[in-house]
TrEMBL record:
Species of the source: Carassius auratus
Locations listed in the record: Mitochondrion outer membrane
Gene Ontology biological-process entries: leukotriene metabolic process; lipid metabolic process
Enzyme class: lyase
Family: Belongs to the MAPEG family.
The protein's name in its UniProt record: Glutathione S-transferase 3, mitochondrial
UniProt gene name: LOC113092965
Entry EC number(s): 4.4.1.20
Membrane-traversing stretches: 12-30, 71-96, 116-137
Amino acid sequence: MAIESLLPANFGYAIFTYLYSFVMLSYLGLQVGGARKKYGVKYPTMYSDKEQVFNCIQRAHQNTLEVYPQWLVFQTIAALEYPIAASVLGVIWVTSRFSYAWGYYSGDPAKRMRGAYGYIGLFGVILLSISVALKLLGML
């Protein structure tokens, strides 16, 4: 059976959203690697006792990794029924993680809130996932 017959039309947009998220995660990881060299923080040390900016760069990546599995689940569930809406919401969330990181990289943790608009994308796919669940249960 061909995959095109299993997935909804326009699911390709969701796949491109996943690829975009891979680019974002790679970028954040590379920033941590560069900061390790710049600030002399050796593996396996996670945080520096001396370099606040390194800690901010590390936290931007770590926080994204902490929420990423949940986002993937809700993004996928939502995209199976609403591929275009889920993809738009996914792009909002992924883009917000760049804004979040760039704000954090300033060394002022409060500036990470520049990425707060990402909650639109995250809560959006959660709501769409709830809609899918309700449809499957015959409640919608």
